[in-house]
Amino acid sequence: MACEHISEITKIKTARKRECEDCVKIGASWVHLRTCQTCGGTRCCDSSPNRHASKHAHASGHPVIASAEPGERWLYCFPDDDFAEY
Ligand SMILES: [Zn+2]
Ligand SMILES: [Zn+2]
Ligand SMILES: [Zn+2]
């Protein structure tokens, strides 16, 4: 069973642009992209130097991200450390 945050998601938000919106501002690079399921912002993963997706989740309280990588269909909840495929 997925946590309540993941269970609440009925429509997956996908990346509007295939880039980290925070890295673009500072000219940094990223490894993988994740899309916030609360606001739809796309940011970089924890393998990237700046870890913007996780910083955004902690700063904003937005709990769930989806992978924005082609072929990956999964959600991750930060507060619950829960993972679900869809
Ligand atoms: Zn959760
Ligand atoms: Zn970034
Ligand atoms: Zn967000």
Short note summarizing the structure:
This protein has helices at residues 4-7, 21-26, 52-60; strands at 33-36, 42-44, 64-67, 74-77, 82-85.
Low-pLDDT regions: none
| Cα radius of gyration in angstroms | 12 Å
Mean pLDDT over all positions: 97
The number of helical runs is 3
Ions and ligands: zinc ion
Helix fraction, binned, reads 10-25%
Task: Find the structural class using helix and strand composition.
Answer: alpha+beta
Shape from CA axes?
globular
What this model shows, in words?
- The structure is a single chain.
- This protein has 86 residues and is an alpha+beta fold.
- Helix content is 22%, strand content 22%.
- The protein has 3 helices and 5 strands.
- The chain has helices spanning 4-7, 21-26, 52-60, and strands at residues 33-36, 42-44, 64-67, 74-77, 82-85.
- It has a 5-stranded antiparallel sheet.
- The longest helix is centred in the middle third of the chain and has 9 residues, at 52-60.
- The relative contact order is 0.24.
Layout of helices and strands, plus pairs?
Blueprint: H1 4-7, H2 21-26, E1 33-36, E2 42-44, H3 52-60, E3 64-67, E4 74-77, E5 82-85
Antiparallel strand pairs: 1-2, 1-3, 3-4, 4-5
Bound molecules: zinc ion (3 copies).
Keywords, separated by commas or semicolons:
3 helices; 5-stranded antiparallel β-sheet; binds zinc ion; 86 residues; alpha+beta; 22% strand
